[in-house]
UniProtKB/TrEMBL annotation:
Protein name: Histidinol-phosphate aminotransferase
N6-(pyridoxal phosphate)lysine: residues carrying this PTM: 212
Pfam families: Aminotran_1_2
Record key words, sorted: Amino-acid biosynthesis, Aminotransferase, Histidine biosynthesis, Pyridoxal phosphate, Transferase
Lineage: Bacteria, Pseudomonadati, Thermodesulfobacteriota, Desulfuromonadia, Desulfuromonadales
Amino acid sequence: MSLLRKNIAEMAGYVPGFQPEDEASWLKLNTNENPYPPSPKVVEAILAEVGAGGGNLRKYPDAASRLARRAAADLYGFDPSWVILANGSDELLNNLIRAFAGEGEEVGYVHPSYSYYATLAEIQGARIRTFGLTEDFRIADFPERYEGKIFFLTTPNAPLGFAFPLAYIEEIAGRCAGALVVDEAYVDFAEVNALELVKRYENVIVTRTFSKSYSLAGMRIGLAIARPQVISALDKIRDHYHLDRLAQAAAGAALADQAYLALTVGRIRATRDRFSAELRNIGYQVIPSSANFVFASPPDRNGRRVYDALFSRKILVRHFSDPLLAHGLRISIGTDEEMEQTLGALREIG
Ligand SMILES: *Cc1c(COP(=O)(O)O)cnc(C)c1O
């Protein structure tokens, strides 16, 4: 007998990418971390926030993260009432489901995309409905009027890396009776984003993360832009001190250094495009990527075989056992040297 709620007792829980304990001895290309350090200004801001002898850490952080919110609002051209920061964009995804979908109500998303949406929906006791993809990367059988309470559209898609065109996202927004969350975790590596749709459609919410493009996965910072009514709801639900002092300082400094973002994102995109071309040269099928990873399939379409061979060479990539994805690998983009090393291993593995 269990005292737990039935859905919690029965759910499997999310399994993050493998985190080896001896991190330094691996080439880690499995969780889409950024190979470059964050902006030096971010590091300075964090150290300044710690204060002499750590004195500032005695005090609670600003519960509303006002400075960081204003920095984001100014950068993206919204009033601060349209912006919220959080402890990773995962916190926002969680609270969005809590805000929009009650027990037994429907949460929708595209499969394959980010499977954490399902875990969050299960915790809430919500129903899950997934939609597949067509050959040309559109949502298969999406209804003229989708009645689910909340729908997640990951663009660029993870783990496949393609981005939906803006006109298509807009069409989906118009077809959703409930909220449309555009999960833009990788959008800084892409050509287009959906921020203008937040202004034009009441039901559109954009979420972002500082984990990938801003090299701050270790700080846990996410961002959402939405109508003030939605932001107020998210503010009611969240823990009051959800963003610590160091995260708030880091967020503000990261947003302020757009030149550094452009530099590192530019490098990663150039490496990604070279790596993709080299993979095709050795017979891999590579989906054109708008993110900081590629989804690539070896000629024999046996992703597991190549995963294991890379693993034995201490190179970690991501393999999904899902039948839709098992033929390929998701490989995060590191530095040029790291991708050369990976290519060398792949040539050897054959
Ligand atoms: C990495 C990722 C997130 C989570 O970002 P955090 O800010 O690190 O919580 C959300 N959505 C997608 C699609 C991601 O890949």
